[in-house]
Write a structure and sequence with these properties.
Blueprint (H helix, E strand, L loop, with lengths): L1 E4 L8 E3 L5 H16 L17 E3 L8 H37 L10 H46 L1
Antiparallel strand pairs: 1-2, 1-3
Helix pairs in contact: 2-3
Length: about 160
């Protein structure tokens, strides 16, 4: 069994039977595409992505204690939260403008084709913002626990 992850989303682990090979990487790409199609990939790969960019996850030879694993996972969760927060903040104002423009569809006021075209282009921004905001809200609830794990670890260091 080989495992792959993405630099953009280290929390995503793709499990593929066999060894690291071109065929295994293609299978991982298929899983990645499926995650993208179902909206379960927390990052967007706008620049394109190739099988060579997959990162093989290797078991470390050193034994990590469960406490160290929990801290590592907590930091990854908080890092993901930070990324999502920035993404939400960056797209919020533009999405709110598009949302205001949606109201014109429900009025008796006439609209031009240009206004409708502009609105249709804005729907993508609105959708991306809404999805990012949902992922942020979900990540935030997970991050509360991660913050507690780190707080416990930091308190034990003070003693």
């Amino acid at each position: 069994m080989v495992q792959y992850t993405l630099a953009q989303s280290p929390e995503i682990i793709l499990n593929i039977p066999g060894k690291d090979s071109a065929k295994a990487r293609e299978k991982a790409m298929d899983q990645l595409m499926e995650l993208m199609d179902t909206g379960k990939l927390p990052t967007e790969l706008e620049e394109g992505f190739s099988p060579q960019q997959l990162i093989e996850v290797k078991e470390t030879a050193t034994e990590n204690t469960s406490g160290e694993d929990a801290i590592t996972q907590a930091v990854q969760i908080l890092s993901n939260l930070a990324t999502l927060k920035l993404k939400v903040q960056e797209s919020r104002s533009e999405a709110l403008e598009v949302r205001k423009a949606v109201d014109i569809l429900f009025s008796d006021q006439s609209v031009s084709e240009e206004e409708i075209s502009k609105l249709k282009e804005g729907f993508k921004v609105l959708k991306n913002y809404a999805q990012a905001n949902l992922r942020y809200q979900e990540a935030r609830s997970k991050a509360e626990q991660a913050r507690e794990v780190l707080d416990r670890a930091l308190k034990s260091a003070d003693k």
